[in-house]
Design brief:
The complex is a heterodimer of chains A (551) and B (328). Chain A is of the alpha+beta class and 551 residues long. Chain A has helices at 3-22, 51-60, 113-124, 149-152, 173-176, 183-186, 247-256, 270-274, 299-303, 316-325, 328-334, 366-375, 405-420, 432-440, 460-463, 480-488, 495-512; strands spanning 31-36, 65-70, 75-80, 83-88, 94-99, 153-157, 160-164, 209-215, 219-224, 238-243, 261-265, 279-294, 341-342, 388-389, 392-393, 395-401, 424-430, 446-452, 515-528, 531-532, 549-550.
Chain lengths: 551, 328
């Protein structure tokens, strides 16, 4: 075979290849493709630890009630789902749930009270190690956190049951509702083997979609389940989650029309995507904020089991001075192109009833910062450009995890801003796993990171003084006033009173400034305009996606 | 002679096993000494570290490193690499799912690298044009110096976005299951064209340079001049005398390249969203999935040793005098 023949063959083959596959390039009209960066490892709601896993598991396993975001109050309102009604006892000691009698699992079995009771049992079982293990303290539980089923549930009929609460309990519906999983599938499996069970990868579900096909690290295809009680005529036939780890590739596919929806689009791509006729965007602000952590106590002493204020960041005035010295607006305008919002406390503006308008972000004012530092005894006596207090110079290392260009940019601004007030900062990137490990051990003096905001609002783990309760209080912030409010929030109070307390809490945090709150970062969602009836709220992007329709 | 080969083969096998054992042992200690904890992600706001402690207990992560190591060694000798923390499946079950793709993808790329580079070198030699030689040599140098992520993105932009000829990512179409068997094969190949070009281009350029120089050396040898003077056909000289002699130094490099390819092609896999060993290894490192990290490194080490062994066998086939030197 000579080279010419070989070339001809090669070209013919390529031509055949391109033509043979070109005909099936256009996807069916009734299919929505969502670009995600990582694959799931399980479809079982018990083990849906990651964002993608819980988004998909929630579509397969609905809960007793449906929750919808109320834009006006910034709270979740309950609606019927598996339960058609729920009735509180007069003394709030129990709730009577009545279930729909027309719900079928995808294998044809009926969903009954037994499935609901089993779900609570499995989610709380320490041998299962589910993602919700340990959160059922509103119910009767054993010492290890396992719900006492007999005390908690009274099954009246296959479609009616009562859920009982201990006397001191303050039940909250949003925290009580768990996804319902099929008892007839999982009761045959030993609890400690549930995580490895085959049904986790081939789920029997009751939601508006059921799993059609999963190609690991490629695609997850959910198809509309026409026997589901949530099935709507005209609903999209298939919801495809396409795993595309490379961001650039996700955006190119979005532009080309191979993907219909992408979350977490970078602000720098906004203009280009806006120019596309077939794309539309939503900017969700208020579910995540960036901050600079100042360790309020000395990490070396902490490692020895002692508590001593940090020599640099122990004083609230110094921390305030640091916040005032950093030009957060510059980062917001220059890097985020004005798409975020400056933050002043951990309470997001999305919680409209609880958000305090009185708490405003500190204005950038280097002179004021210098004054505050001077009052705290920090002076540049040796005129080397760095402030001193006794033998201590004001210099420290600020860490941030690798792979986030926004933080890289912000670190440079922070370094330069603080240099201008006489503080020397060395910035250092750290691998994410190592970074998190150091935070849990309270080893870092200063760091830049982000917090996601849980719905419903939950402040205690992040700001409570006792490290056993405030497990995520990496700054080791301690305030008896704040603790008192956080304790009060767990007592029986009206919603109005709770909101007042949360507003007071924001004022305390603003005065103490345990960390420097930077900005609420945007979650830019870009989607194809052929998707209609898209109701994206801070509660989630996919929560009611069975209501989406295609043009 | 035969007993010598058997003896050296057994020695080679044992030393390979020892190398692999030392590799995974070293890795076991290094990753446990490094910061980061695989159970950190189970620390919940409400419960603190209770769930993470239970999971650490389940996977024996709360035991002293020496105890963990001894248990690991005894399991390895039973052929059990443990269970992946993330996938909750036996390590080799997870690896096989990814390795099967890498095996096919890397093999096709390797065959393409070898055949295209040899074909190109022969074509340039046959043409006997200085400008062509210079052009191909400089072009190969240019291609070799392009990073895979640049080439991959450029190919996507030109062939997928601008001309819509190939898919941007993935291994198959969403409607793959509805296609006939023949169309399914074509569909996969259609998806693999750009990733294969990305992975293969640098290899072709590298091997071309090796082969071309090697062939030029052989062509300058006296025996080739004698053959030409005796009137032997140029094609026969090339096929029977030049190629076998020129390929010998290439085989060792090819063995290493095959080993590297089978260990995973991270950048190509990420750009084109392919489920290969490179992505699996990196993901397992970032999530601190210790058994899976060790399993991936073990697999990469094993294929590297195997690929080199294969290269040595081929060299031996070409020249039996090398038995002892190669196998030892």
């Amino acid at each position: 075979m000579n080279i010419k023949t070989l070339n001809c063959l090669l070209i013919s083959f390529l031509f055949l290849l391109i033509n043979s596959c070109d005909s099936k390039q256009s996807p069916p009209n009734n299919r929505i493709i969502i670009g995600i960066s990582a694959d799931v490892q399980s479809f079982n709601s018990l083990f849906a630890f990651s964002y993608e896993e819980s988004a998909i598991a929630d579509l397969l396993y609905p809960g007793l009630l449906d929750f919808r975001w109320n834009e006006e109050s910034g709270e979740l309102d309950p609606f019927p789902m598996i339960a058609t009604s729920w009735q509180w006892a007069e003394d709030s000691s129990f709730i009577k749930f009545t279930l729909r009698d027309d719900i079928f699992w995808s294998d044809g079995e009926k969903l009954t009270s037994a499935d609901v009771v089993f779900s609570y049992d499995a989610f709380s079982d320490p041998n299962v190690q589910s993602r919700l293990f340990g959160i059922f303290n509103q119910l009767y539980t054993e010492q290890d956190g396992h719900i006492e089923i007999e005390k908690t549930f009274k099954v009246i009929s296959p479609y009616e049951f009562e859920m009982y609460f201990p006397k001191a309990s303050i039940p909250d519906l949003v925290k009580l509702v768990v996804p319902v999983i099929p008892e007839h599938i999982f009761n045959k499996v030993s609890r400690d083997q549930l995580a490895n069970h085959e049904s986790n990868f081939n789920p029997v579900s009751s939601g508006p979609f059921k799993l059609k096909k999963w190609s690991r690290n490629q695609t997850i295809i959910l198809e509309a389940d026409s026997v589901s009680f949530l099935f709507l005529p005209g609903q999209v036939a298939e919801l495809v989650f396409k795993v595309v780890p490379d961001y650039t590739s996700r955006i190119l596919q979005l532009k080309k029309g191979d993907i219909d929806l992408v979350e977490l689009v970078k602000v720098e791509d906004m203009d280009e995507l806006k120019a596309e006729d077939n794309l539309s965007m939503i900017n969700l602000i208020g579910r995540e904020y960036d901050y600079i952590g100042w360790n309020n106590i000395d990490p070396t002493e902490y490692s020895k089991g002692k508590t001593k204020l940090h020599k640099l960041f122990g004083s609230s005035n110094v921390r305030k001075a640091l916040s005032i010295a950093i030009n957060r607006k510059e980062i917001l305008d220059e890097y985020l192109l004005g798409q975020g919002e400056l933050s002043a406390s951990p309470v997001s503006p999305i919680f409209k009833s609880a958000f305090s308008d009185k708490v405003k972000p500190y204005e950038f004012n280097p002179d004021e910062a210098k004054k505050l530092l001077f009052l705290e005894g920090w002076k540049d006596e040796d005129r080397n450009g760095i402030l001193e207090k006794g033998k201590d110079e004001f210099k420290f290392k600020m860490y941030y995890p690798v792979g986030n260009p926004l933080r890289e940019y912000a670190a440079v601004v922070v370094k330069n801003n603080l240099k201008s007030v006489g503080i020397e900062v060395t910035t250092e990137k750290m691998e994410l796993g190592t970074f998190i490990d150091n935070l849990y051990e309270r080893k870092l003096d200063s760091w830049m990171a982000a917090w996601g905001v849980p719905i419903p609002l939950d402040l205690k783990p992040y700001w409570y003084s006792d490290p056993n309760i405030g497990v995520l209080n990496f700054a080791c912030y301690s305030s008896s006033e704040a603790d008192k409010i956080l304790d009060q929030l767990e007592t029986k109070l009206s919603n109005e009173r709770k909101n007042e307390l949360i507003k007071e809490f924001q004022e305390i945090i603003h005065t103490d400034e345990p960390v420097t709150f930077l900005y609420w970062t945007p979650n830019i969602i870009v989607y194809n305009t052929r998707i209609k009836n898209l109701k994206i709220t801070p509660y989630g992007v996919f929560v009611h996606c069975w209501e989406w329709i295609l043009n | 002679m035969k007993s010598d080969i058997v003896k050296t083969l057994i020695t080679r096998f044992l030393s390979s096993v020892l190398t692999l054992f030392l590799l995974v042992s070293f890795l076991f200690i290094i990753i446990r000494l490094s910061p980061g904890d695989p159970t950190d992600k189970y620390i919940s706001a409400k419960l603190g570290s209770e769930l993470s402690e239970r999971i650490a207990e389940k996977f024996s992560l709360n035991q002293p490193v020496t105890d963990q190591y001894l248990s690991f060694v005894s399991n390895v000798f039973r052929g059990d690499m443990g269970v992946s923390y993330n996938y909750r499946l036996p390590v080799f079950e997870v690896i096989w799912e990814y390795f099967s793709f890498t095996l096919v993808f890397a093999s096709i790329s390797f065959i393409l690298q070898m055949s295209l580079s040899i074909w190109l070198a022969l074509w340039v030699i046959k043409k006997r044009k200085k400008w062509l030689d210079k052009f191909v040599t400089n072009s190969s140098l240019f291609i070799y110096s392009i990073p895979a992520f640049v080439l991959g993105v450029a190919l996507i932009y030109v062939f997928s976005v601008s001309f819509n000829l190939f898919p941007i990512s993935g291994l198959k179409s969403l409607d793959y299951d509805y296609l006939s068997y023949f169309s399914q094969v074509l569909d996969k190949l259609h998806h693999l064209v750009l990733p294969l070009i990305t992975l293969t281009a640098a290899g072709v350029a590298l091997f071309y340079k090796y082969i071309k120089e090697s062939m030029d050396d052989v062509l300058r040898q006296t025996f080739v001049i004698n053959l030409r003077a005796s009137g032997v056909d140029e094609n026969i000289i090339l096929r029977k005398h030049v190629i076998p002699n020129a390929l010998r130094p290439l085989i060792s490099v090819a063995g290493v390249e095959l080993g590297i390819l089978l260990g995973g092609a991270l950048i190509t896999e990420v750009i084109f969203s392919l489920p290969g060993m490179g992505r699996l290894t990196v993901d397992s490192i970032f999530s601190r999935d210790y058994p899976l990290v060790i399993g991936c490194v073990f697999t990469a080490g094993a294929v590297m040793i195997l690929a080199n062994f294969l290269a040595d066998i081929i060299k031996l086939k070409i020249d039996k005098r090398l038995v002892k030197g190669i196998l030892n």
